[in-house]
Structure formats: structure tokens, C-alpha cells
Amino acid sequence: MTGVTLTRSLHSNAIANAALKGSAVLWFLTAVIGQWIFAYYTVVFYGGSALRGDVEAVNKNLIHGIISGDLIGNVMVIAHLVLAAIITFGGPLQIILGTVLTSGGPLQNISKLQSAAGAVHRLNGRIYMLTAFTISIGGLYMIWTRGTIGSFAQHIAISLNGVLIMIFAAVALGLAITGNIEKHRRWALRLFLVVSGVWFFRVGLMLWMTIHQRPVGYDPVTFTGPFLYFLAFAQYLLPLAVLELYFRTKDKASAPGRFAMAITILVLTVLMGVGIFAAFMGMWLPKI
Ligand code: HEM
């Protein structure tokens, strides 16, 4: 390789790396905005209804909601909504803190900002892990004792989501405790995606509705149909698959491969942005 071709190759490698990183950051920031809107909706709608004692508004929005005489079930629903707000706000925050903590410089040269981020990361991490476990166990309890809308396949899909959340939380926590930071980062991202499954479901459904302008591939009354069966699994399996592709591209791919991945992430970010906007306008804003 001549000096000129070597310089060109280094140059295109640097641009490909920057494009990949830039697209991932843009995807993440878009997701953070969308998740914090969802958290805001949960707090304002359910919190507001609770403060006003408006059980009817809550029940109109849920499949079963608050049922008189079902103390355990009602506690589970209330806990689920409180934990939903905590985890949807705390999840993105945890990734942001982790990034500040590990960005640049060896750990012994850690800045004041980084050590503060580290302390909050550890505290928020404990809350996040505990929330991930309890929200999944509560969700499983609600699905298999009270049931919910949709078919058996959808109940299996969301249950698998709950089980994956608990497994990934345990793995990410174990890796953090043993100091295996690089692997911890990757499992924390996988955990973030499975925890975001129910959010991806809402965003994906509203994107689909925006594209078709009417319910296609499912029955809006029974909430069953092939598109919803697909989405129930895709809500966490698709983001996990894209993340694995991203890790592999980052580790091994050539400059053109990195560009291709960056463009894929940009396209997915635009689609996700459309879904977030549609969910905000159609699902959340009318209730807050
Ligand atoms: C981990 C992240 C999760 C979040 C942020 C979350 C959030 C929510 C929210 C906000 C609602 C109220 C419906 C709405 O206003 O959109 C809800 C309902 C529900 N969630 Fe979750 N959820 C999560 C995980 C799960 C899991 C893993 C399961 C099951 C295994 C589950 C089962 C349910 C059920 C059955 C309802 C309906 C309750 C009813 O209609 O009475 N959730 N969830």
C-alpha cells in the first residue's frame, strides 16, 4: 500500500467510525426524548387521576384496572404504573450516566463530573435493577391471573419479554459487580432494549397506523391479528437483533460496512421518530 492509499484508507475509516457513532448517538437521543414523553404521560395521566381520586379515568384506559375486592391485583396495577414511570425515566438516565463515567481517560484520572456520575450511576443502577425485577414479576402476575387483551401468543410474547428483562438485569448486574465493565456496557444496552419493549410496541403500532392510516393486519376491537403477533415479539427481538449487528459492525466491519450500518440506523431513527410523534399525538397527548 502506498503512503497516499494508506492515508486515504485511514481517513475513510475515521469518517466511517464518526458516522457510525453519530448515528448511534442520534438514535439514542431520539429514544430518550420518546421514553421521557412516555414517562411524563404515565406520571401526569395516572398520577393526576390518582390525586383527583378518578378511578373511572384509570379504568377506561386499562383492560382491567382497579377491580373492587381484588386487593392484590389492584396493588400490582398501582405498583406497575409507579414502577413504569421510574424505569422509563431511569433507564435512559442510567445509560447517559454510564457513558459520562466511562468516556475518555483512564479511571485513575477520573474527573469530578465523572465521579459524581459514578455515584448516581450506582444508586440509579440499584433502583433500576430492582424496578426491572419487580415490574416484570408484577406484569407476569397480571397477565396470568387477570389476563389482558389479545391472544395467547401475545401473552407468551410479553411474558418472554418479562423473563428476558430479569435475566438481562441479573447478567448486567453480575458483570458490574465483578468489574467486567466492557461486557457490562453491552448487557446494560441489551437490558435497556428489552425494558423498552412495551414502549417500542406503542411506537411501532403508531408508526404502522401512520403508514396505513387505518388498522391493517389486526382487529382493533379484539386486538388480535398477524401484525400484532409479529409486533408482540418484534418489540424486543428486532431491537436486540439490530444491536447485535451494531456490535459486530463496530468490532469487525470494514469502512463501507460501517457506513451501511450508520445509514441503517439513521433510517430506523427516522421511522422511530415518526412513531414517537404519532404515539405522542394520538395516544398520550389527548390524555394529559
Ligand atoms: C418494563 C417496562 C414496562 C413498562 C414501562 C410498562 C408500562 C405500562 C403502562 C404505562 C401500562 C398502562 C397502559 C398505558 O397507559 O399505556 C401498563 C399496563 C400493563 N402492563 Fe406493563 N410495562 C412494562 C412491562 C410489562 C411486562 C414485562 C408485563 C408482563 C409480563 C406487563 C404487563 C402489563 C399489563 C398486563 C398491563 C395492563 C393492566 C390492565 O390493563 O389492567 N408490563 N404497563
Structure description:
By secondary structure, this protein is mainly α. It has one domain. It is built from 9 helices and no strands. α3 (71-102) packs antiparallel against α4 (112-146) and α6 (181-195) packs antiparallel against α8 (226-252). The chain is globular, with a radius of gyration of 21 Å. It starts with a helix and ends with a helix. The site of protoporphyrin IX containing FE (HEM) has 26 residues, from α3, α4 and α5.
Shape, per Cα inertia axes: globular
Number of domains: 1
Q: How helical, in percent, are the residues?
A: over 70%
Question: How many H/I helical runs?
Answer: 9
| Chemical compounds bound to the protein | protoporphyrin IX containing FE
Distance between the termini: 62 Å
Largest sheet: none
Strand content: under 5%
Nearest-angstrom radius of gyration? 21 Å
Question: What is the strand and helix layout of this fold?
Answer:
Layout: H1 3-52, H2 55-61, H3 71-102, H4 112-146, H5 152-177, H6 181-195, H7 197-212, H8 226-252, H9 255-284
Helix pairs in contact: 1-3, 1-9, 3-4, 3-6, 4-5, 5-6, 5-8, 6-8, 7-8, 7-9
Bound molecules: protoporphyrin IX containing FE (HEM).
